[in-house]
Design a protein that fits this description.
single chain; 233 residues; alpha/beta; 11-stranded mixed sheet; binds NADP nicotinamide-adenine-dinucleotide phosphate
């Protein structure tokens, strides 16, 4: 993997193969609460391939950064839809599922106590069941009819989960942007065109969020970008 652009501008040595510690330095998060998202897209903007999952478009280059960002995170934050479709299982680090319905995704129901948290709202249909499945202390009720995502970040920070990694999906990513909670957007562009009817990495009502590119990497025609999220207000 080679660096095209870094925090100090164009890379002086385009031919140098980046080590794992180079990558750790390039993706190090600042101190304090930090929420970044990492998703993958084709050149024509598809967030899924023929299987309807991201697994049919991602590749080994993307997987290297996906794994690195998990290593650098205190917790993964994921939309319930993605956890269901992608078949999320308990991971080494805590998984925080965001759900309006309060329905705990099947693959996460048998997680060891405290490994899975659910962020939901008072209007959730399945609130009592979620408390039974995960334990009341692991169900965060953050709002009446919608999940307050800024409050989620604050509550996770209080629990010592400071560096957060959102792995999507598109509706959750859009809502994080809309609520002004996202600090960093990492996106892999895989060298494929797929047409068809696939979601993009954001979905839902329009938002317009400026980004500042700080890192751009390339390997095997795959581009990996690290953008800081600008604030409109
Ligand atoms: N390319 C990539 O990197 C990538 C990454 C992730 C996912 N994907 C793909 O994206 C597709 C899923 O898209 P999606 O947009 O449906 O994913 P999603 O945002 O993970 O799922 C939507 C569901 O998650 C919950 N949710 C999301 N945002 C919420 C919010 N602000 N407040 C409360 N609940 C919220 C709700 O669950 P409830 O129904 O329980 O209320 C909602 O129905 C899948 O095909 C997946 O494979 C691609």
């Amino acid at each position: 993997m080679r660096q095209l652009i870094g925090p100090d501008g164009p890379a002086p040595d385009l031919a140098r193969d980046l080590t794992d510690s180079d990558l750790g330095r390039l993706y190090a998060a600042p101190q304090g609460p930090w929420l970044r998202a990492n998703l993958v897209t084709t050149v024509d903007g598809a967030a899924t391939g023929e299987s309807g999952k991201s697994g049919s478009i991602n590749n080994a280059v993307d997987k290297r950064i996906f794994d690195l960002l998990r290593e650098l995170a205190d917790a993964v934050v994921v939309g319930a839809g993605t956890a269901r479709i992608e078949g999320y299982r308990p991971a080494d680090l805590p998984t925080v599922v965001v759900s309006r319905s309060g329905r705990v995704p099947e693959g996460l129901r048998a997680a060891p106590a405290g490994r899975v948290l659910l962020a939901t709202c008072r209007a959730a249909d399945a609130l009592d069941e979620a408390r039974d499945v995960l334990g009341a202390a692991n169900v965060l009720v953050l709002g009446g009819h919608r999940v307050d995502l800024a409050e989620l970040k604050a509550r996770l920070t209080e629990r010592g989960l400071t560096h957060l990694l959102c792995e999507g999906g598109p509706h959750l990513l859009r809502d994080l942007l809309d609520q002004g909670v996202l600090d960093e957007m990492d996106a892999t562009v895989v060298p494929r065109l797929v047409a068809g009817l696939h979601p993009r990495i954001t979905n839902g009502p329009p938002v317009d969020v400026p980004l500042e590119l700080t890192v751009l990497l390339e390997e095997q025609n795959t581009l990996l970008g690290r953008w800081l999220v600008g604030r409109n207000n």
